[in-house]
Amino acid sequence: MSKPAFWLRCEKKEFERRAALTPTTAKQLIDAGFEIIVERDEQRIFDDSEYEAVGCKLVENNSWPRAPASVPIIGLKELPVSTDPLPHTHIQFAHCYKNQAGWSKVLSRFHAGGGTLYDLEFLQDDKGRRVAAFGFHAGFAGAAAGALVCAAQRQGKSVGKLEPYANEKEMVKDVKEKLGGSGKGVKALVIGALGRCGRGAVDLFRKIGLEEDDILKWDMAETAMGGPFSEILDVDIFVNCIYLSSLIPPFLTHDQIRAAGKQRRLSVVVDVSCDTTNPFNPIPIYSINTTFSEPTVPVDVGPENPPLSVISIDHLPTLLPREASEQFSHDLLPSLLQFPERKTARVWVEAEQLYQSKLAEAVKAEGL
Question: Which residues form the active site (predicted)?
Answer without folding.
Answer: 77, 95
